[in-house]
Amino acid sequence: MANSIAGLGRLERVELRAAWASESGDFTPWLAQEDNIRLLGEAIGIELEVEAEEKNVGPFRADILCKDLANGNWVLIENQLERTDHSHLGQLITYAAGLHAVTIVWIAAKFTEEHRAAMDWLNEVTGEDILFFALEVELWRIGSSPMAPKFNIVSSPNDWTRSVSDARKVIEQGALTESGQRYVEFWTYFGERIKERKSSLRIPKPNRDYWKTYSVGRSEFIVSAQALARDEFIAVQLGLLGLRAKRRYQELMARRAEVELALGTPLDWRELPDRKESQIRLSRHGMDMKDQKNWPAMADWLIEWTEKFQSVFRRIAKEVDIEEDGSPEDVL
């Protein structure tokens, strides 16, 4: 037994400056690379797409500007290869004050207790459209192996708890209709089924919306799970958004046979010429949300087909209209 473990190495902590001499010249360009921003996204549970580095946001410059591919909201990343300070905290609060829907990520070598507490407090007092993450970055290696980065979350929004709490407040204040309350309860159940099935889908915030969105790894391509109580049907669809929606729809339509073969079912192709958006949808009718006995079948169907849509369109979206989208729009 002793011989079988004799070759095990020992993890050694490495100083951050050994890999990144400066924040702006080394760490920020490294983090903005596709594989590395994916590593950060996995740590915070958000699929990110880099839009710009050193982007002006009001009087400040955000180190990295990203899009949250699940909902199109902005994600601002601020880096600090040292102990946190009040100056950076002030910048983050300024960002939040000027934007309506944003996720703010603060990465540092070490968070002081007061700054961690401040991030916790910001997540408690802000609305659900503004989220704050605090992460410490570390470097490790075994022997002479390459250095490996590790992100440790020290503060994050408790989305699930806050969403349920907010919904409860709205119900108590009488602001939710009976239909709205039913949606909150159904999406709560939907999240529970995702857990039970050990699905790869993100657990959504339960609210009064009839849809929940999911990413396929590219902005303006959005998969949504839908449950329409009034019309008694459920659906999963790919929504094509933005100025190139119609062009992208035509490219996908040209590959209709390939798409439907990959999914194993015919789809409803909706160009919607009078609207900016186009849709590719699969629906199931006769599903009455008012009867909770239908919820297991509804949730399982939505989970199964959302997973399939994500898998198929994640691959195909990378091959459609691959020209650069140009510079990101101003965020303030």
Automatic annotation (TrEMBL):
Residues 183-315 form the DUF4268 domain. InterPro entries: DUF4268, tRNA_endonuc-like_dom_sf. Coiled coil: none annotated. It holds the Pfam family DUF4268. GO terms for molecular function: nucleic acid binding. It comes from the Bacteria. This is DUF4268 domain-containing protein. It comes from Caulifigura coniformis.
